[in-house]
User: Which sequence fits this backbone?
């Protein structure tokens, strides 16, 4: 049985005081959640403080991006070894904002996935379509291409030590969300796509939904058979919302 996973993506938000206040509120609320996995992916500068705050709790932590390159002359980049210094468990790769705003293509995302996994990190691979792509019926083609780039580079078995997050781009930060049935349909497609390569991997890989999950819709989304939790954006910056979403995953 796949464990439910809820990951907060803080994006480019927070400061030392706000982060400490948020974690101080989240930690007690997470103590009773034994049947799910909770994590937060935070901006690079705050990894030391988050590591210190969470090291004796049930909450894991990680980063929002990582370089595909080895240590060296890559000014402004952050290598996998640097994330390991702070005991990161997860790292997000291929978030739609990285793809659309910073030009990361499928091959670059696949390289980051491979680099993260080779270092022992668990990559959270984001896939998803824009509204325009959905409206012309290209959702499955787009997601298939995003998955194929990773499978071609690392093999389907590599997905065993990863997490996939379906994030419809049209539902991120817009207040819109896919209905549970719409989300389930895409999650089922992703699992069936992987099953063509390896049925065991498909049965066990966690697939999260990442499109404006809130406390109010989390239970209905997480009740779907192929939705194994959520990649939570704005709601992860509110302790009560985040704990409520985690509680919904446990139920």
Assistant:
């Amino acid at each position: 049985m796949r464990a439910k996973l809820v990951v907060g993506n803080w994006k480019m938000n927070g400061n030392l005081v706000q982060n400490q206040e948020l974690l101080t509120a989240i930690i007690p609320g997470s103590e009773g959640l034994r049947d799910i996995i909770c994590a937060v992916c935070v901006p690079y500068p705050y990894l030391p403080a988050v590591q210190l705050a969470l090291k004796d709790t049930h909450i894991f932590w990680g980063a929002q991006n990582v370089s595909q390159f080895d240590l060296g002359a890559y000014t402004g980049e952050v290598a996998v070894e640097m994330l390991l210094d702070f005991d990161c468990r997860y790292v997000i790769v291929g978030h739609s904002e990285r793809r659309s705003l910073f030009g990361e293509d499928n091959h670059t995302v696949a390289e980051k996935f491979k680099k993260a996994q080779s270092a022992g990190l668990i990559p959270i691979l984001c896939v998803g379509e824009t509204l325009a792509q959905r409206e012309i019926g290209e959702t499955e083609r787009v997601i298939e291409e995003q998955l194929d780039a990773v499978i071609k580079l690392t093999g389907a078995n590599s997905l065993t030590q990863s997490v996939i997050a379906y994030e419809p781009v049209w539902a991120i930060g817009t207040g819109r969300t896919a209905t549970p049935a719409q989300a389930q349909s895409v999650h089922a497609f992703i699992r069936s796509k992987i099953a063509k390569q390896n049925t065991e991997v498909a049965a066990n890989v966690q697939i999260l939904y990442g499109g404006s999950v809130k406390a109010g819709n989390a239970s209905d989304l997480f009740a779907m058979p192929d939705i194994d939790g959520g990649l939570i954006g704005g709601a992860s910056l509110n302790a009560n919302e985040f704990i409520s979403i985690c509680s919904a995953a446990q139920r």
Summary: The mean pLDDT is 95. Residues 76 and 122 are 22 Å apart (CA to CA). The chain is about 45% helix and 15% strand.
